Amino acid sequence: MRRIILSSVFLFLLFCSVFSFLPGPSLASGLKISPPPLLSTHFSSGDIDGRYEASYITFENINGYGIQRTRRKAHSDLLAITSNIGFFYLSGDQKYENPDDGKTVEHDIDYYFFLPLGISGELQYKISEPVNLIIFGGPRFHYGHSEDETLYGGTLTSSTNNDYGLGGEIGIQLGIKVGRFMVTPFASFDSIRIKSTSSDDDTEDQYFTFDSQTVGIDILDKKNGLTLSALVGTPEHDDNDELDDFTIIKLGWMF
Predict the structure, then answer these.
(1) Residues near 23 by beta carbon (within 8 Å), at least 6 away in sequence
(2) Is-contact 126 110, C-beta < 8 A?
(3) What residues pair up with 98 in beta bridges, in sequence order?
(4) Which terminus of the chain has fewer Cβ atoms in its 10 Å neighbourhood, N or C?
């Protein structure tokens, strides 16, 4: 049994290491930060389950909160389909140097809220009775709305932006039963193409790609259905801005 668990952990870490060679995530007028859709790593044909979650997000000098609902239906012992929708709110400020001219940019986000929506297929592989592996992936949709002010080159501008995004996500979960708990390390990579429109008629629509790599751990108390998750994501953007990692703490309930 110990050998099976160690082999499973090795395969999971090997998978995670691949993410370090993928392009990283990014930030522009639109910010895309949302956790992957996680449920229990064990399902059987006909099972229908789900999870409600509340999240706290911190990213550079930006903080926020969110709620998310995830639902899954297992069509066999091998395949399940998961859908999820959320609402997230962020606010804060950024200060960075424009790589083109070296001037300082001060960006104050009054508020930014966004609605992520996703559908995933899940493939389950039962390694042993206490150890399960799930590979998931599918399309992601994104809508965001923000109001912000930017001080650049001595000029202060205000704008209202709407972001529309379409992309995809792929990831892996390794579930290990430990008594009444299910411990699940996970990793995911997602990429989304965003169109950002501004209320300023003189500003052209912007198009950019936002990628993110996420690793974390999820703990489920099977007795009462409560969950606690922590994850760290590495963001990057078309402009190759130097961005700090974002952190998300989640408290959830399985139903």
Answers:
(1) 191, 211, 236
(2) no
(3) none
(4) N
Q: What is the pLDDT of residues 237-250, one digit of tens each?
A: 665 555 678 899 99
Which of these, 189, 202, 183, lies nearest to 236 by C-alpha position? 189
Sign of the torsion angle spanned by Cα atoms 118, 123, 126, 132: negative
Helices (H), the chain: 2-19
Tell me the β-bridge partners of 96: 105
Query: What residue type is 241 in one-letter code?
Result: D
112-152 per-position pLDDT tens digit:
888 899 999 999 998 887 899 999 999 999 999 998 888 88
User: The tokens 């493939």 sit on which residue?
Assistant: 123
Q: What is the pLDDT of residue 33?
A: 63
**pTM of this structure:** 0.79
User: Cα–Cα distance between 245 and 214 in angstroms, integer?
Assistant: 10
Calpha distance 221→143 (Å, rounded): 33
State how far the Cα of 114 lies from the Cα of 146, in Å rounded to an integer. Answer: 9
Please state, in angstroms and rounded to a whole number, the distance separating the CA atoms of residues 150 and 32.
19
Q: What is the rounded average pLDDT of the residues 69-74?
A: 96
First-residue to last-residue Cα distance in the chain:
30
Strand runs labelled E in the chain: 48-59, 62-74, 79-97, 104-126, 131-152, 155-178, 181-198, 206-221, 226-237, 246-254
Q: Which residues pair with 55 in a beta bridge?
A: 66, 250
The two tokens of residue 124 are 């389950």
Total residues found in the chain within this entry? 255
Per-residue pLDDT, 1:
52
Q: Which domains does the chain have, with CATH numbers?
A: 2-254 (2.40.128.100)
